[in-house]
């Protein structure tokens, strides 16, 4: 059996009870933290909480050479752990399909993810979000500024009145970053302000799931000059706002009234 377990958003306690039970019952536990990570816990915290050794794999170990995971799942019970939900954004469908091809039973134990947190914390209605996008570091996509695909996604969503969730780049053990690098919301807002629309309304979500989670709405030019603290950060670019959504951004995120007016329907 191969069980995919989402660890949730913040620390070792964010996992569901069902997920914790699956880890406790497993013969071997594997994890990856190159797509996302728990900012409130490290691997030692997770191992102490679950009382088990966790084998952390890099991208090559998961996508290029998953044999140790598959062999462990054939011989007994194995769990594969990621931050958030293992099948939302940090998707590992390929690994699940490989297991199925070998006759290995699989299941998924879900957990909160950044996608649901962005809606929950901002007050923006989840069914009013369009296609999401990822904003990469300038040096990571081989060109200056913002990729045209990001701008096209945002503008296509706005034409339909929909919100855009922008995931912000994470680079693990990258030579250019001299280690791990996490794009901040202020950096992202600055890129979009310079290469797209400085007056556009943006909503920052910082450290979703943490006790000090922060939500702030303002024009991109203002967000670019702010400090939102430690990662992980998200940036939402609103489309049309229902009056409840506008009230939520004003009351929960201190959105300026003039910026909201341009989005009200």
Contiguous low-pLDDT stretches (5 residues minimum) are none
Report the biggest beta sheet as strand number plus sense, adding barrel if it closes.
5 strands, parallel
Averaged pLDDT: 94
How far do the termini sit from each other? 50 Å
CATH architecture title of the largest domain: 2-Layer Sandwich
Provide the succession of SSEs.
EHEHEHHEHEHEHEEEHEEHEHH
Q: How many E strands? A: 12
How do the strands line up in the largest sheet? 3-2-4-1-5
Structural class, from secondary structure content?
alpha/beta
Number of domains: 2
User: What is the percentage of strand-forming residues?
Assistant: 15-25%
CATH level 4 superfamily of the largest domain: Tetrapyrrole methylase, C-terminal domain
What coarse outline follows from CA principal-axis ratios?
elongated
Helix content: 25-40%
């Amino acid at each position: 059996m191969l069980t995919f377990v989402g660890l949730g958003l913040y620390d070792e306690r964010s996992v569901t009870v069902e997920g914790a039970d699956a880890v406790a019952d497993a013969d071997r536990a594997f994890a990856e933290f190159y797509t996302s990570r728990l900012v409130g816990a490290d691997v030692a915290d997770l191992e102490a909480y679950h009382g088990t050794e966790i084998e952390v794999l890099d991208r090559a170990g998961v996508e290029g050479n998953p044999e140790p995971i598959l062999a462990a799942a054939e011989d007994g019970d194995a769990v594969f752990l990621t931050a958030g939900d293992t099948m939302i954004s940090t998707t590992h469908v390929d690994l699940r399909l490989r297991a199925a091809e070998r006759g290995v039973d699989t299941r998924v134990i879900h957990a909160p993810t950044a996608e649901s947190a962005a809606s929950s914390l901002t007050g923006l209605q989840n069914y009013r979000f369009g296609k999401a996008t990822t904003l990469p570091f300038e040096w990571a996509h081989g060109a200056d500024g913002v990729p045209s695909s990001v701008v096209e996604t945002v503008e296509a969503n706005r034409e339909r009145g929909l919100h855009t969730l922008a995931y912000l780049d994470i680079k693990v053990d990258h030579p250019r970053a001299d280690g791990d690098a996490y794009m901040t919301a202020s950096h992202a807002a600055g890129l979009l302000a310079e290469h797209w629309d400085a007056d556009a309304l943006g909503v920052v979500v910082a450290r979703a799931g943490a006790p000090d989670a922060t939500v702030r709405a303002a024009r991109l030019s203002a967000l670019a000059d702010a400090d939102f603290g430690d990662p992980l950060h998200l940036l939402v670019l609103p489309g049309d706002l229902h009056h409840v959504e506008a009230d939520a951004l004003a009351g929960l995120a201190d959105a300026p009234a003039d910026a909201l007016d341009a989005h009200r329907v």
